[in-house]
Amino acid sequence: MSSTAFQDLGVAKWLSDSLEAMQIRKPTSIQSACIPEILKGRDCIGGAKTGSGKTIAFASPMLTQWSEDPFGIFGLVLTPTRELALQIAEQFVALGSQMNIKVCVVVGGEDIVKQALELQKRPHFVIATPGRLADHILNSGEETVAGLKRVRYLVLDEADRLLSNSFGSDLERCFSILPASDKRQTLLFTATVTDAVKALREKPRSGDKSPVFMHQVESVDKVAIPKTLSTLYVFVPSYVKEAYLNSILQLAKYKESTAVVFVNRTMTAEVLRRALRKLDFKVASLHSEMPQTERTNSLHRFKAGAARILIATDVASRGLDIPTVELVVNFDIPADPDDFIHRVGRTARAGRKGDAVSIIGEKDIDRIQSIEERINKKMELLEDVNDDKVIKDSLQLMTTAKREAMMEMDKEGFGERRKTNKRKRAEDPLPGTDPKVKHKKPSSKSKKEKQVISK
């Protein structure tokens, strides 16, 4: 039997067969470029837009080499959100099913004791969010995390986000337990190759390590959004945004569409979920205040079509494979234009058409100008929605639903858990530091960047 395209890249035959069974036969550009170089032992930075097969680009060489020399915890994959961690774990399990692969998912919201016991059993691959893994390193004991000291691979998925300041202290704690950079391979994959990511390529190399291999699919930055995506806007007073959202979702052309509505805050996500549900929309939500089981159930309901609308913070903007989204609504405009690109990347995938509607308030003008400059495209007015229509069809209904939702949330003490957790983490210093000293957030040139690829 002749070899497949993946075998020609160096992928093990059993893994090539698994890919064939999943009807994945032809490597994408990022896979063709990165797999051979990773198999040669090189550190790698891979940049390619969402949906281009980045997970297989790093999973294939890792699984190939693991099957030749299986031991302990072979690889650690760090990713910014729980949903992405679960999705990556599913792909590892599917790819390695015939080899009895053991994968451990370490994310917040799940039983920490159960995770500690799984880590002690030395699974082959650990897929984790930095915050929860840092908690284990700090609190779960030497026996739990000892297996991480010999990992052969470290992967940072959505590396641009992981290297932002918000993950700084947790990443430092994770790196503190791992082998030195010359004793492991480090793979960074991202849809947005930021200056922080590019800078890692120039870091001095320890020992006799080869230069970092970097492959950026040409279209990543030149074509920020697909040609099949229509970018539209409505300009509204900020205090009636909810009523405009209701009118948009009720439009004849969107009435049956699967839609993701992005917001900037968990409070907004929860208010909209409850308010829209009162107006008989089939709606689910995804935000960090939800227990993990609810987050997972919401995503499954949306993927299965049981919910037509998903209200989400940016935990859903990156990497999640939801192929049927036809409409993205930016209820809140993100501060970073790249976040806009990630959000609207949930629709118009694989050549399909999709619409992205931004609800612009009076304070959003500068952000919209930055976004239009980044995507090299002017948004067009959504003419189907106007003030008269909103006043007639939506304003009173939505105002009442929103008021009732907020009263319910106030009674239930929504947001108290987040305040408690924030207080706890503030009391949780890095190892070897004085808990009475307030620690500064790492700067953009912090230790974490130096630790990733260079020793």
TrEMBL record:
<dbReference type="InterPro" id="IPR014014">
    <property type="entry name" value="RNA_helicase_DEAD_Q_motif"/>
</dbReference>
<dbReference type="Pfam" id="PF00271">
    <property type="entry name" value="Helicase_C"/>
</dbReference>
<dbReference type="InterPro" id="IPR014001">
    <property type="entry name" value="Helicase_ATP-bd"/>
</dbReference>
<keyword id="KW-0694">RNA-binding</keyword>
<feature type="domain" description="Helicase ATP-binding">
    <location>
        <begin position="35"/>
        <end position="211"/>
    </location>
</feature>
<dbReference type="InterPro" id="IPR050079">
    <property type="entry name" value="DEAD_box_RNA_helicase"/>
</dbReference>
<feature type="compositionally biased region" description="Basic residues">
    <location>
        <begin position="437"/>
        <end position="448"/>
    </location>
</feature>
<feature type="domain" description="Helicase C-terminal">
    <location>
        <begin position="247"/>
        <end position="390"/>
    </location>
</feature>
<feature type="domain" description="DEAD-box RNA helicase Q">
    <location>
        <begin position="4"/>
        <end position="32"/>
    </location>
</feature>
<comment type="similarity">
    <text>Belongs to the DEAD box helicase family.</text>
</comment>
<keyword id="KW-0698">rRNA processing</keyword>
<dbReference type="Pfam" id="PF00270">
    <property type="entry name" value="DEAD"/>
</dbReference>
<keyword id="KW-0067">ATP-binding</keyword>
<dbReference type="InterPro" id="IPR000629">
    <property type="entry name" value="RNA-helicase_DEAD-box_CS"/>
</dbReference>
<keyword id="KW-0378">Hydrolase</keyword>
<feature type="short sequence motif" description="Q motif">
    <location>
        <begin position="4"/>
        <end position="32"/>
    </location>
</feature>
<keyword id="KW-0539">Nucleus</keyword>
<protein>
    <recommendedName>
        <fullName>RNA helicase</fullName>
    </recommendedName>
</protein>
<dbReference type="InterPro" id="IPR027417">
    <property type="entry name" value="P-loop_NTPase"/>
</dbReference>
<keyword id="KW-0547">Nucleotide-binding</keyword>
<dbReference type="InterPro" id="IPR001650">
    <property type="entry name" value="Helicase_C-like"/>
</dbReference>
<keyword id="KW-0347">Helicase</keyword>
<keyword id="KW-0690">Ribosome biogenesis</keyword>
<dbReference type="InterPro" id="IPR011545">
    <property type="entry name" value="DEAD/DEAH_box_helicase_dom"/>
</dbReference>
<feature type="region of interest" description="Disordered">
    <location>
        <begin position="407"/>
        <end position="455"/>
    </location>
</feature>
<feature type="compositionally biased region" description="Basic and acidic residues">
    <location>
        <begin position="407"/>
        <end position="418"/>
    </location>
</feature>
